């Protein structure tokens, strides 16, 4: 089996487990993204995950596992790194506008190349600190970026009224949840079942109080 076919097969298995039915065009672009990331990763060390097959599970499927919880017309992905979960979600949801935020120059260069080569007209890249991002967003995502308190203290003002903050975490820490800043409340905490991944994965949905 050719490498690209192997990656598509692994993606399809995961999508079936997540209950997602995607058109061939989106499936192909998701694999294009993994292949681009794998090429850049060898030179720029963008992610600790080296194997493209592992990237499908630990990056693509992990990102797509929260797709049903994204809402609104605009989304900011804070500390996006190599574009996670922002790029997989943007490929899945072209009707939304995505802003990918990262202060690391080499990661921002990769993001701009990914936007160009994947023809992501609904994505822009902001290279800088989350504290400096202009505007407000209907939805904010952050994947293992910082503690809940730090994220909300730095960037809570980016969340529009009525919007939702989707914090992707591994193992839940009671003390972290207890330290939620004033003005915010946890709407729900969900355990995520991500195919072919080891360890706990959780989604914490936060709204303004």
UniProtKB/TrEMBL annotation:
Reaction equation(s) it catalyzes? guanosine(527) in 16S rRNA + S-adenosyl-L-methionine = N(7)-methylguanosine(527) in 16S rRNA + S-adenosyl-L-homocysteine
The molecular function GO annotations come to: rRNA (guanine-N7-)-methyltransferase activity
A single GO CC term, please?
Answer: cytosol
Domain of life, source organism: Bacteria
**Family label:** Belongs to the methyltransferase superfamily. RNA methyltransferase RsmG family.
Query: What NCBIfam families does its record include?
Result: rsmG_gidB
Please state what the protein is called: Ribosomal RNA small subunit methyltransferase G
The protein's organism comes out as: Tahibacter aquaticus
The primary gene name is rsmG
């Amino acid at each position: 089996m050719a490498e690209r076919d192997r990656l598509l097969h692994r993606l399809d298995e995961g999508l079936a487990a997540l209950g997602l039915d995607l058109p061939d065009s989106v499936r192909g672009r998701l694999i294009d993204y993994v292949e681009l990331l794998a090429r850049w990763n060898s030179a720029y060390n963008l992610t600790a995950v080296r194997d493209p097959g592992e990237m499908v599970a630990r990056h693509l499927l992990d990102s797509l596992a929260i797709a049903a919880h994204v809402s609104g017309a605009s989304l900011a992905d804070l500390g996006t790194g190599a574009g996670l979960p922002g790029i997989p979600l943007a490929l899945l949801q072209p009707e939304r506008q995505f802003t990918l935020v990262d202060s690391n120059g080499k990661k921002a260069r990769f993001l701009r190349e990914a936007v160009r080569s994947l023809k992501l007209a609904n994505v822009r890249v902001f290279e800088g600190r989350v504290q400096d991002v202009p505007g407000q967003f209907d939805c904010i995502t952050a994947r293992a970026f910082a503690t809940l308190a730090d994220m909300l203290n730095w960037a809570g003002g980016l969340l529009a009224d009525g919007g939702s903050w989707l914090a992707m975490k591994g193992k839940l820490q009671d003390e972290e949840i207890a330290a939620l800043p004033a003005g915010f409340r946890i709407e729900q905490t969900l355990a995520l079942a991500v195919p072919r991944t080891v360890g706990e994965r959780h989604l914490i949905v936060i709204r303004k109080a």
